[in-house]
Amino acid sequence: MYVEIILPLPLQNTYTYAVPEQLQQQIKTGCLVLVPFGKSTRYTGVVYYIHQTTPQRDFEIKKILSIEEDAKPVFRRQQLRFWEWVSQYYLCKMGEVYKAALPSGFKIEHAQSYKPKTESFVRFQSSYSEPEKLHQAFDLTKRSKKQEDLLLLFTDLSKIFQKDQNREVSKKELLERSQINVSILNALVEKGIFEFYEKNISRLDSYEKPTISPHALTDKQEEAYRNILSSFREKDVCLLHGVTSSGKTEIYIRLISETLKLGRQVLLLMPEIALTTQITSRLERIFGKKLGIYHSKFSDHERVEIWNNLLKNDGYQIIIGARSSIFLPFKDLGLVIVDEEHESGYKQQDPAPRYHARSAAIMLATMHGGKALLGSATPSIESYFNAQTGKYGYVQLSSRFEEVALPEIVPVNVKELKRKKRMKSFLSPTLIEKIDDAINKGEQVILFQNRRGFAPIYTCEVCDWTPKCKDCDVSLTYHKSKHSLTCHYCGSTYRLPHQCPECASSQFGDKGFGTEKVEEEIQHLFPGVETERMDLDSTRGKTAFEQIISRFEKGKTQVLIGTQMVSKGLDFERVSVVGILSADSMMNYPDFRAYERAYQLMAQVSGRAGRRKKQGTVILQTSHPDSPLIQSVINHDYTSMFQSQLEERHLFRYPPFFRIIEVNLKHKQEKTVKDLASHYAELLRKHLGERVLGPDKPIIGRVQNLYIQKIILKIEISAAIKVIHQILTDVYHEMEDIPSFKSAVVYYNVDPL
Ligand code: ADP
Ligand code: ZN
Ligand code: ZN
Prior knowledge:
Number of strands: 31
Low-confidence stretches: none
Distance between the termini: 45 Å
Radius of gyration: 30 Å
Largest sheet: 7 strands, parallel
Number of helices: 22
Bound molecules: adenosine-5'-diphosphate, zinc ion
Structural class: alpha/beta
Shape: globular
Mean pLDDT: 92
């Protein structure tokens, strides 16, 4: 008997092993096994399938060593099928998908493999376990008031006299409630009255409060809901295009309830944890314990518990999660919702599998015979195009809940103001006035600047020398609070230079501004006003987001300053002013998606203003107030942005008309990577001709001491993807014969963002 095993390695899809006699009875598809690999390594792999075909090899076929956890399958068959799709479409190996999918706590060779969390509990020793015998225990404690009290409290907490309501009491609970020293409890154990026992407990918080019913939908929401249902009758995917604060979440809640009634599961994908905080508490109040949460800030042990819960037949019915939750062991998904579907956070960049969770979620839903709903106020060009061409259903919600007007967006021409010398800092007089106004009225303000740190450039004031990362071709960002310089590409931190290496001057200054500088300026202009920053630096801990959001919700913070994190789906009541500090920096980015992204970011952050009752104001600082993109933001005109972008995409052969696949090559030596890249491009051109562009050095040509080259493929949407992928795989193998290829990092990125 042989098995094909998926190992967490990027070399082959599966590896063949023999099954020793004594394990043949137990082994099943989807269970984890320990196997030897190479000379001395062992890996935990997953059984992909079992067969009887003796492999034709001239080397010995190794045997599997053991089977994990009484051969209980950790995967469902459907998951393995899904992995197959991911590895084929995103041009990576099954092992890489496996590695991304399975929490490492499951892996036997992993140092911190999963162990259930245990807690000490207290119970009567068997001679006292009958209520009738209790008086004997009380006799034994007569001489100590404290012992007697503890015994009383325990009988009370454990409800030992109420037959059907007996409950277990932990040591911790007993000590906390009694405020009695642990030595008293130990004395009762020594007297043979109590004993301790260990019990497995869950690491996951479980929602214990009573649930409430959802809001009734408004007429417009009800209509949108019905339209979604009827679109699902014909199509598997529907795009819900609803302006900010139109109640998309309320519609999700309704669809989730209906899916649960059918006994099927729901996956609600969120692009970032910043968002899950608010939505989770909204959904928990309604769905209680049926809801599980899964995201990157969870520990490995917590992930294992969620996974195990889903393997049970009566586990979670709804999962809210970040992109990697598509890999969880769902039993029967009736619906997958992709909230804020336009978000680039859905695409995994590194390591492989470099999947886009929106595309993968649609595939996942289809494999389960379920439906997919994509929700956004600013859909991706791709999804909107698919809706326009009838591939997806399309449902629109064009007014806000309670008909609150969309915010008024006021452009402020900073170029003009600078010319007139009226810009004292990076905050325009209009914006300062609006902030002042809002604060005086007890309202709140959000300021958006898409750069973290204090200043993006730190420089010598005499000769303009700027410190760069030693491993990457980028200038370092100045972080004033940490009194250091940081590389935003590799994370290395450097001390501030005392002397310029070029001219020996000790005068340094900075250029540009990040969130830290904005915060400092606001504190300077509005002393005593509570400010808070929300960016990558201020949200490291597991609950950091939650705390920032909750302080802002409660009104403890008046001004929230942040990067794109503040643009995402947050729902606050009292925000009347939003400031977009530099619109131009978003547009001047050399990427075909720059305009689409700039529009989405500005529209989304604007959408945080005036969500209840009163119309909000957005101050948009730009040097090009008349540019078509700024005009479309001001007029809340998604369609005009879409039309003009679509023309460009068509003209320059970009998605949604062409599929892009990137070949990334990285190497320590610049010459080696250049040679490899041109050879690679040559081989590709033989098969794909003009579809191959490059190789080129990207704008950031070196990261973490590796030189980078990129080849871009533009493939017609109508081309048979299987054929293309076969060519790409073959060329990759051909390249593997070149000696320097082994020391290079080379990978495909399908549908890069
Ligand atoms: P979106 O997800 O489209 O941005 P939300 O679902 O967050 O919008 O709705 C915006 C706000 O309006 C939320 O605070 C929500 O509770 C409220 N709201 C929306 N629809 C209703 C409804 N039908 N009944 C009561 N409150 C609603
Ligand atoms: Zn200098
Ligand atoms: Zn670096």
